[in-house]
Specification:
Elements: H1 14-30, H2 47-59, H3 62-73, H4 79-104, H5 111-118, H6 127-147, H7 150-171, H8 183-202, H9 207-227, H10 235-238, H11 244-258, H12 266-272, H13 275-282, H14 289-299, H15 302-334
Helix pairs in contact: 1-2, 1-3, 1-12, 1-13, 2-9, 3-8, 3-11, 4-5, 6-8, 7-8, 9-11, 13-15, 14-15
Length: 337
């Protein structure tokens, strides 16, 4: 999505675009758990539960990384980027509405469904309104980052994070939002991305250590999840986007990809450019993404279940990307500088 980085092909680094693609696949993997990772957990420990916790722990960083990329490149709030984002949201909103009518076999639409398509920012899909708010605040955040040193930005970011996480853990709702489901958490991630950009531009580091750190933290999260079988304390906090281990794990994986020079890979950039479209498409009611995964989970097991789920994830990503090509074509036709 163009709004996630400044216009210009020179910034379309395939290493970061690959990470953008992976982060969206992670989000799709998270949403294969149609009922939530904890809702069906009965307290037993077997291979199936360990595998589910592992996939959840590996993928929980997806949303964080998506926003870290925005902060790393910096959002440039320009007329074209705003119009492009709005058009993409409305395009998939209308696609979703039409698809729902076709499935229902009627052209009659309840007012509430029509209003959701007309004003998609008001939907319960929390990511969209929070990202729009982040976009609106980006000029202020960029001006702040231009004025102060990397150290000052890092101290402020960590201070806001520590205070908001402590407060929200107790009262379940502050600037960061309980679990990281708010624009405040996006603000923290955005500033974190800016700090990473400055640090990586001026320092050399062993990127493999960050990858190892990501896997170690993933293992710790899985271990805590299993321990909570016996000591059920803070169960919901563990799977929150703003949980400290998840926050650091997100940074580790991001740092690993930053210095990976894989050149300019066309197919990676092409797929990654429609990553936001994938998000919009798979939450549309007619897409029935969660229902499809629920069917797989309830009717298959073992390796077959894993393979079918993987095919489902990849299939939805590809279909959304192909639909987005129509949106891109229309946008280029109707938008003129």
């Amino acid at each position: 999505m163009n709004t996630l980085h400044p216009p210009g092909k020179s910034l379309r680094k395939s290493n970061i675009e690959l990470l953008r693609l992976i982060s969206m696949l992670m989000i799709l993997v998270l949403h294969t758990r149609y009922d939530g990772i904890l809702s069906t957990y009965d307290g037993t420990i077997d291979a199936s539960h360990i595998l589910r916790f592992l996939f959840e722990a590996l993928s929980i960083v997806g949303v964080n990384i998506f926003i870290l990329i925005s902060g790393y490149f910096g959002i440039k709030l320009k007329r074209k980027s705003i119009f492009n984002l709005a058009f993409q949201i409305y395009f998939f909103g209308m696609i979703g509405l039409i698809g729902w009518m076709v499935i229902q076999g009627t052209w009659h639409v309840e007012t509430r469904y029509f209003m959701k398509a007309l004003f998609p920012i008001s939907q319960t899909v929390w990511f969209i309104p929070n990202y729009v708010l982040l976009m609106l605040f980006s000029p202020i955040l960029n001006a702040f980052c231009d004025k102060y040193s990397t150290r000052q930005i890092a101290i402020l970011t960590l201070s806001i994070y520590a205070l908001s996480y402590f407060w929200s853990s107790i009262f379940q709702g502050t600037i960061s939002g309980f679990g990281g489901y708010s624009w405040g958490w996006f603000l923290i991630l955005y500033l974190t991305g800016r700090v990473i950009r400055r640090y990586t531009d001026s320092h050399q580091f062993n990127d493999n250590l960050y990858l190892i750190g990501y896997f170690i933290l993933t293992g710790i999260i899985v271990g805590i999840a299993l321990l909570q079988n016996k000591y059920p304390i803070g169960t919901s906090l563990l799977w929150s986007y703003d949980f400290p281990l998840v926050y650091v794990s997100s940074i580790c994986l991001f740092m690993y990809f930053v210095k990976k020079d894989i050149g300019h890979v066309k197919w990676i950039n092409w797929l990654a450019a429609s990553s936001f479209a994938v998000l919009l498409f798979h939450v549309a009611p007619f897409a029935r993404y969660k229902e499809t995964n629920q069917y797989i989970f309830e009717n298959y097991s073992g390796l077959k279940c894993v393979l079918l789920t993987a095919l489902c994830v990849l299939g939805y990503y590809i279909v959304a990307t192909l639909i987005d090509q129509l949106r891109i074509l229309i946008f280029r036709r109707i938008y003129t500088e």
